[in-house]
Write a structure and sequence with these properties.
By secondary structure, this protein is mostly helical. It has eight helices and no strands. The longest helix has 56 residues, at 154-209. It is a multi-pass membrane protein.
């Protein structure tokens, strides 16, 4: 196979290089996204356990605010509680401003989780066509080589067809993992986003239950 690749035409070799690079980069993205999404799920589990354990919200907020690497749910909580405290200081209804702030935080977290997924979609959708282009070009090049031959045999075109089909195989090799990973990660992102939305709604309901007449210190107590 190595000799077939080395004997391939320049265009087919270029196609193979593109597909190999795309495959390597897609696997790198797959590993990074798998780790980051798994970490997001674990961080959400840990934060929700602390949040619903009866911890004082003011103390929880201070602990989260000091962190330099807030997780997705921590970011949503911090944004909402910060806006809640600001609204209460100005004697304004706090639920809706907090909800708006958390929606913005959720949108940012979702954008961050979706980073590089478009690359996987692009690799998955274009790699087969790039490989097909290399195949067509290789077969065309193999048959053009017979133009000056009196009697063509299968042995004369077999190497050219074989090297062309390698391009198709590389295209599928790059595309299939990318498509599977994209579908898996897109589903994971949707699940995390729904989880953040649900937490946001529950948190706003909790803040509203505190009562608009309570001072900020009383409103910042433990979850009911």
């Amino acid at each position: 196979m190595y000799q077939l690749i080395m004997d391939a035409s320049l265009i087919v070799q270029l196609v193979m290089v593109i597909l190999v690079v795309a495959s390597v980069l897609s696997w790198l993205v797959i590993i990074i996204k798998a780790r980051s999404l798994n970490a997001a799920h674990r961080a959400s589990d840990e934060f929700e356990e602390r949040f619903w354990s009866g911890a004082d919200l003011s103390h929880l907020y201070e602990g989260v605010r000091r962190k330099s690497d807030m997780s997705g749910m921590e970011h949503v909580f911090s944004s909402g509680f910060k806006e809640f405290l600001r609204a209460r200081q100005h004697a304004m209804p706090a639920g809706e401003p907090a909800h708006r702030a958390m929606r913005v935080a959720i949108a940012r977290e979702t954008d961050e989780m979706e980073r590089y997924l478009q690359f996987l979609a692009t690799v998955g959708s274009t790699s087969p066509y790039i490989g097909l282009f290399g195949t067509v070009w290789g077969i065309m090049h193999a048959f053009l080589g017979l133009s000056g031959v009196q009697q063509a045999t299968l042995a004369m075109v077999a190497p050219g067809i074989a090297e062309a089909l390698i391009a198709t195989a590389l295209g599928l090799f790059a595309a299939i993992p990318a498509v599977i990973a994209y579908n898996r990660f897109a589903g994971d992102v949707d699940r995390v986003a729904v989880r953040l939305e649900n937490f946001s709604d529950e948190f706003v309901a909790l803040l509203n239950r505190q009562g608009a007449s309570k001072p900020a210190e009383g409103a910042a107590g433990a979850p009911a």
